[in-house]
Amino acid sequence: MNIYLTGMMGCGKTTLGALLAEQAGAEFLDMDAQIVREEGKSIPQIFAESGEDGFREIETRVLSEIAERDGLVVACGGGVVLLERNVEIMKQSGKIYFIDRAPEEILQGMDMSGRPVLRDGEKTFQEVYKKRLPIYRKTADVVFKNTGNPGDAAEALAALLKF
Hints:
163 residues; nucleotide-binding; 15% strand; 54% helix; magnesium; kinase
């Protein structure tokens, strides 16, 4: 079974995932980094060339490849839960852990300028957060409140997972 970490951009999926995998002796995989490797383009480039729908198709393909493996800790892209088929893929191959972090904590000191879903001022972070929060909660097997520093949060998450 894989552990899929979902949540908003900047909530700590990659940081916590890497620390958690290290503690568990598991392999860590960052989905966005995997997409960039496979496509040979940055996420903003993919969005610019293929739009969000094109990106989501690539994301589903990469997620399907990941789901064929076992024992991974996976930091998912923030929008992976927007497609029901992605949620099904994750549920069939592991458990979904929503990393819940307050928007004000996420925004504190974080540069959102390179985030394609916030491009050109079309959507604000708060709008995206408000839309996605109920989806994260509904699709998660476990909701984990990320309120501490990364080391403490990873230990708490590891304890929750009984590592």
